[in-house]
Fold this protein.
Amino acid sequence: MAELPEIAKLTGQMRDTLCGKTIQAITLLQEKCANIPPDEFQKRTVGARIEDVRNRGKWIITALHNGENILLSLGMGADILYFDNEENEADKYQVKVIFSDGSGYTARFWWFGKFLLVSDEELASESNTKDIAIDPFDERFTLDYFSSLLKGKRTQIKSFLMNQKNVGGIGNMYMHDILFKARLHPQKKISDMDRDEIILLYNSIKDILNLSREKGTFAYESDFFGQKGGYTMDYFLVGYKENQPCPVCGETIVSIKTGSTTTFICPACQKL
């Protein structure tokens, strides 16, 4: 599942490649991934020029010059693939966007993907994106900002970080190593954390996500041009390494249930 590093990379590639292009046609083969009928989608987008592509958490927002916005969510995973002409397009997809120069891209959703259209006026109140917080790649995501988020909170640290209303873009895949590197048990209450632990956690968030970005993001996710990332399982510290030794102390890594998710931890390094 794509998380912040993968979404940020895809967003940047889409921005660099698509800005200035004019939409010629949009094909919606799976209507349930959209919020309006295909003919209305076409009517409101054909002839519109792409002005910007940005992300809000795990959502990618493509702004059009006519005041419309395409909102793309990869859900539990998707292939979003560019083609320079239709002969080179992907074989399978639910959505296809074609531009006036003959290029385009396809979206093949694995599960729960969304391809929505909302106007500028609707965007501020769009339920899927309006409450998403800034993400750790945002320059405003400073230590002071992060500390202020945690002030007065009593919830468990993992559930807090996974809530997109608190921190945008982080999911379960990178959470295992973020908490391990910070030496925090996922069920530790924020109210029990001291200043040093908050600083360590902030640096861990930055370090883990930036390392993935530096390595080209997760190895099992394709970018806009079909290339896989370089962040292989070798870079994971404890994530998905149940029954293997902790890289710090040698204790056996275990998995525990944390709400609706599973977390991999070192029981010696991450004591509750």
In short: The chain has a mean pLDDT of 96.
